[in-house]
Amino acid sequence: MKAQGERRTAGAHGLARACALVACAALAGCMSAPPRADTSYAPTMPEPAVAAAAPADGAIWHDAQNMELFSDPKAHRAGDILTIVLVENTQASKKASTTTSKKDKTDLAAPTILGSVASLHGKAASIGLDGERAFDGSGSSSQSNQLSGEITVTVAQRLANGNLLVRGEKWLTINQGQELVRIAGIVRPQDIGPDNTVPSTRVADARIAYTGKGTLADANSKGWLSRFFSSKWMPF
Known about the structure:
This protein is an alpha+beta fold. The chain has helices at about 1-30, 215-220, 225-230, and strands at about 80-110, 110-115, 115, 120, 125, 125-160, 165-175, 175-185, 195-200, 205-215.
């Protein structure tokens, strides 16, 4: 009796552990996946300056201070800072409608055999085929996106033609979560304004990501069971 009681206790503990694992999986499925760190958006540090001999006392110009008195203050080399003004506004819509129908009808008269019409159960053995098919389908889709703001990035590389490869990201920590903005692309020096800014519409091969994590992001995402019923694996 003691061994049987121990087995029942062990079984109860195993069932409790299984329920706890299922509950943890359900809670984890309800939470939104946090954004992953991406090194392709990491800032680029400026190249270290070449060591030079210490200037003599009383000199006006100090090379170590790197004062460019007559150069353009706009970003133009690796490690320089550039501000991108986000002015993204896109809209897309699509509609499709298809209607098809087909109707077939064929009648074959009863054959005449030895001068009499073939019959079956007292009725003429005529054959008639009648078929009708119809299809009516329609669909529509619309989407609009708007993103505004500013993000300051660094120049990762100056290309051979003078264009600048820029990238960067910004984290905003708010009461109930964190917001992340990432951008990477190629900028022409002539598109950079006097205030060292460039609109995002002038960024070539732009990759812009806006996401977040926290309470609001979790509340705005489906749980794992809802995602299963909405996935392609659901046959209904």
